[in-house]
Write a structure and sequence with these properties.
Length: 204
């Protein structure tokens, strides 16, 4: 297998950042796609369009309702951070709809964090550097030190507790059923972004 050098990874990240959008631009894109009955990615299907519509509603809800503990807020505000947070996603991804708004709430707390979004299928070279167990799982967050352009951490595709639930279910049943996916959505709704917040704060 070909080994990719650190320099090459930095170049791939740089190219992807040049092609990135802000969180607000991503939200606007998803809303526009809902109006057009479409979705991101090369393949437009009824299922993916429906997921995009559902995710637009989820993100609107989380944009309004995610709460961060006051102590954590001041901790993040007072940290000396100079990072770009680059997240890989697609409009139809259910996990991403729950995670991206939470990441945005954290990024907004510190001026040293530049939060950028790219689409997976338009950035395959980037995605292939950050696989999860060999698969192109999203959402994937990459934390980049702006002074050195080094990747300091990655996160995703799911919060830690959700990852455990999914892995345990796969071990027992082989693949994820629609019923399990429904249970996972209920877990996200109960969790209210708190596991994602705790996970990312640990990375900082």
């Amino acid at each position: 297998m070909e080994t990719i050098t650190d320099t090459t990874i930095k170049q791939i990240i740089k190219d992807s950042l040049a092609n990135s959008m802000s969180y607000q631009e991503y939200r606007d894109l998803v809303s526009t796609l809902v109006n057009k009955q479409s979705n991101t990615g090369p393949e437009v299907t009824e299922a993916l369009t429906n997921y995009t519509k559902l995710n637009d509603r989820r993100m609107k809800r989380w944009d309004k309702t995610v709460k961060i503990d006051e102590g954590l807020k001041s901790n993040i505000k007072n940290k000396s951070i100079n990072q770009t947070w680059l997240v890989i996603t697609e409009s139809w991804c259910g996990d991403a709809a729950h995670v991206l708004p939470v990441i945005n709430k954290l990024a907004e707390l510190n001026e040293g964090i530049d939060y950028r979004v790219v689409l997976r299928d338009e950035n395959e070279a980037l995605m292939d550097q950050f696989l999860t167990n060999g698969s192109r799982s999203i959402a994937k967050l990459i934390l980049i030190d702006n002074a050195t352009n080094n990747v300091v951490a990655t996160y995703g595709p799911r919060p830690s507790t959700a990852t455990t639930l999914v892995n345990n279910y796969k071990v027992k049943h082989g693949s994820l059923t629609p019923e399990f996916k429904e249970e996972l959505q209920q877990w996200y709704n109960k969790d209210k972004g708190q596991t994602t917040i705790a996970d990312i704060v640990t990375l900082l």
